[in-house]
């Protein structure tokens, strides 16, 4: 008898739930018991849904944060490698450009003179603001001697002033003044007018970064735009080495001779490789 009552109660409950569902589907308005039950169930669901969503969102944020951290780490490594590769590429391109210029320079010189140009690497530059020198990696063992001319691919930069077995010190043109070993000046002439012009480059004017040439007899000897080269007089610098370009011409200090200001062709900054000029001895 007890089981029969239980079965009847379960059937009635199932019928109630089915009827309740059908009434929800077919009707737009709910009775107050239905509304009460629906609101109660929804409120109860909300108690569990919101905390569950917060917890799930927290773990998802932690996962996303770790992914972002790993991606950022990889990105930093990639950018660092890219920067290193870019620097190396720029250095190789600059080196390749210098080598091309040096090759072109030596090819040009073969057509103009019979000098031997020994390439040397600059290994140190003097930081002394008074004495402008630099050291190169060629010395007596390489056949380097005192007073040999030193040039870049652009023009004359100085002479050998000290020689050791494996290195040498170069005195730059920017060191020309009245107190050093080049005080007698550099005998120079105009390219293409060697027999008609003569002057002495006696000092470097730091304020203007120009070379001052004196002892010019006539103003027409050195015109603005002329290329000035070594004349070979004085037995220090061989003839034909380009020095610079005339930028001005005016009367000298005593009004007897004229002077000209020369813009050096060579740059004295950031020198990496230079050439020591080996002039063949006549008869050999």
UniProtKB/TrEMBL annotation:
Domain Rod shape-determining protein MreC beta-barrel core: 122-277
Gene Ontology cellular component terms for the protein in this record: plasma membrane
Domain of life: Bacteria
Keywords of the record: Cell shape, Coiled coil, Membrane, Transmembrane, Transmembrane helix
Function description: Involved in formation and maintenance of cell shape.
UniProt record similarity statement: Belongs to the MreC family.
Protein name: Cell shape-determining protein MreC
Protein species of origin: Paenibacillus contaminans
């Amino acid at each position: 008898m007890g089981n029969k009552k239980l079965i009847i109660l379960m059937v009635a409950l199932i019928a109630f739930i089915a009827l309740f569902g059908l009434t929800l589907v077919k009707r737009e308005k709910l009775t107050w018991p239905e509304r009460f039950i629906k609101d109660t169930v929804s409120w109860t669901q909300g108690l569990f849904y919101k905390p569950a969503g917060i917890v799930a969102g927290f773990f998802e944020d932690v996962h996303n944060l770790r992914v972002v951290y790993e991606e950022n780490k990889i990105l930093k490594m990639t950018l660092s490698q890219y920067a290193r590769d870019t620097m190396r590429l720029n250095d190789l391109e600059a080196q390749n450009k210098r080598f091309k210029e040096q090759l072109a320079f030596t090819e040009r010189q073969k057509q103009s003179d019979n000098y031997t140009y020994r390439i040397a690497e600059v290994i140190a530059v003097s930081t002394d603001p008074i004495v402008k020198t630099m050291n190169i990696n060629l010395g007596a063992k390489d056949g380097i001697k005192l007073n040999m001319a030193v040039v870049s691919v652009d023009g004359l930069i100085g002479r050998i002033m000290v020689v050791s077995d494996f290195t040498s010190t170069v005195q730059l043109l920017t060191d020309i003044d009245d107190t050093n070993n080049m005080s007698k000046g550099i005998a120079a002439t105009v390219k293409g007018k060697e027999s008609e012009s003569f002057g002495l480059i006696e000092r470097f004017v730091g304020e203007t970064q120009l070379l001052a040439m004196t002892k010019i007899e006539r103003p027409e000897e050195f015109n603005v735009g002329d290329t000035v080269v070594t004349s070979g007089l004085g037995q220090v610098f061989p003839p034909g080495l380009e020095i610079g370009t005339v930028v001005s011409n005016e009367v000298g200090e005593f009004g007897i001779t004229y002077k000209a200001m020369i813009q050096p062709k060579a740059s004295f900054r950031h020198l990496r490789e230079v050439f020591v000029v080996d002039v063949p001895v006549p008869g050999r």
